[in-house]
Amino acid sequence: MNTCRLTLYVSMRALISILLVMLLFGELISVQAAPDSAVTNKPCLTIELQDGSRVLGRSKENTLQIHSEVLGEIELTLDKIAYVKRLANTNLAAIKAANGDTFTATITTKTIHLATSFGELRLATDSIRQLSVNTVFPGTNPGAVASWSGAGKGGDTIGGHNASLVGRVAFAPGLRGEAFFLDGASYLRVPGTPELAVGKESGLTMECWINPAKTDEQMPIIEFEQELGSRNGSDVGLQLYINLPPGGGAGRGCISANLEDTTKISHIISSPPNLLRPGIWQHIALTYDRVSGEAVIYLNGREVTAENLGSFTPESNLAYLLIGARTAFGSESRPSDAFSGGLDAIALYNRALSAPEIQSIYEQEYGGDAGRREDR
Which position has the higher pLDDT, 4 or 165? Predict the structure, then answer.
């Protein structure tokens, strides 16, 4: 009789434990995964490998297999996971749910299948240090037309607008994984297309991460040009710069844009000076809404300046989009202005992202590291 009571007591405790975990993580558990053909939007993943490199892409599956001491073998749906982080010197991983709940388990999925800008990859889970599932992924907000990262070696993860690397473009560890590092003469060149001509749409956004080597010299981030090395100022269109002196900007450490329109009239907006710092990663963004005429500049997810410039069509329907250089009044091999430092996750949209969307990109693209770059 006592043995029966003991067995019943242990069974009830196990059942209660299982029910509690299912209540906490019920949204994570997939009893039966939906057929792949029924899923139109696969989860977006940022994967850090054990060697420090980073891979961005869309998962080809929707679930992750794990083994829990309490629940046994289960499936977690990826879109309800924030991150999976392997614990050092163990076979366990710390799993954080999108709602903030955490637990540990063994990952039993052998490989992660990704679609990336440079083709499909199968990564062994043993080679992964951390996997993050992003509700906001570089360039995957509605309206995204292109996104370039160092991990993709200049490949566009959105629309196939792949960049050519001009000069000595280097790749080195960035905020996470590899980023572009430009030497003050190198840059990325992208052929213009109707999709990249975002100025003709209802609005536009340009956003990226930058790590400038200096903040006392004007440096281009993005510029549209018609003819490389032209001596004609009308061959230059929409442009985003840092450190522009007064007249086009506010001087050292400012973020500036000239939304030059199709009639060659300049529309300039600039942040206050001394906002940017050299040697650290910072997120910058420019948005423009043609309907309202409102232009906004953001730094690290926060609005730093806004101005109503009126309604017009920014000139972006040109032959080239340049990242990190201006060749006008210089040459293709010797730009007149060029960026020096790190660039990553450069994205272009055909609409003006909202302030919460910009904030979300800043917070979620790089997970828990957001907001702590100043300490690096």
Answer: 165
d(CA 88, CA 104): 13
CA distance 143 to 12: 52
- Residue by residue, DSSP assigns 303-352 as EEEEEE--S--B---SSEEEESEE-TTS-SSS-SEE-EEEEEEEEEESS-
CATH class of 144-375: mainly beta
Rounded CA separation 270/307 (Å): 9
* Alpha-carbon gap, residue 164 to 324, rounded angstroms: 12
Contact criterion met (CB below 8 Å) for 375 and 277: no
Q: Which residues contact 199 (CB under 8 A, 6 or more apart)?
A: 237, 238, 259, 261, 262, 313, 314, 315, 316, 317
List CB contacts of 191: < 8 A, sequence separation 6 or more: 161, 319, 320, 321
- Cα separation, 355 vs 90, whole angstroms: 41
Stated length of the chain: 376
Reference 300, options 198, 229, 209, 199; nearest CA is 209
Q: Is 359 helix (H, G, I), strand (E, B) or coil?
A: helix
Side chain identity at residue 276, one-letter code: L
Place of tokens 């992208």: 190
* pLDDT tens digits for range 237-248: 999 999 999 989
Q: Report the C-alpha gap between 264 and 249 in whole angstroms.
A: 18
User: Under a CB-based contact definition with an 8 Å cutoff, are residues 146 and 56 in contact?
Assistant: no
Q: What would the pLDDT profile of 223-236 be if each residue is shown by its tens digit?
A: 999 999 999 999 99
How far is the C-alpha of 111 from the C-alpha of 64, rounded, in Å?
10
d(CA 207, CA 222): 10
- Domains of the chain by residue range: 10-133, 144-375
Q: What does the alpha-carbon distance between residue 372 and residue 363 come to, in Å, rounded to a whole number?
A: 11
Contact predicate 135/362, CB 8 Å: no
The pTM for the full model equals 0.70
In whole angstroms, give the CA distance from residue 60 to residue 42: 7
DSSP letter for 356, please: H
Do 103 and 119 touch, CB atoms closer than 8 A? no
The DSSP symbol for 26 reads: G
